[in-house]
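Data availability (excerpt). The following record was deposited with the supplementary files.
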Amino acid sequence: MSFMKLSRQLESLRKETISLDNLKFKTIEKNSRNITHLAINESEKTTLIYFRGVSKVTGDIQWYESKSTYSLIDAQKVFKNEDFSEILSDGITKSNTKNWHKTQSEINSEKETLEKLTKKELIEIIIEQM
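Predicted structure:
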């Protein structure tokens, strides 16, 4: 079962690599909402706006996206000016699009590291995370 969990994680990482290619992201100034990064998809005429934040309670990384889709022009203004208060008031939701703040080389490096581990090492990692 542990090996299956790792296989699912690797598959998830592969899917993330594909879906993240079109996202433009940046680190933003410190703010009261603990939002650390913004992202938009510039390959379409409309886009969701993606957020990476840090929980004020647990310190865990949290991933969100806007509930509404925005024109690329409006999304680019939000992105450029880091003015996301209107987006937050329109509503955000937990996002399944994660880890987009990493560069492609960081994602590839993580993937390669996981693929080089022995079965025993993989099992030890999974047990540590339980």
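Summary of structural features: The first helix runs from residue 2 to 19.
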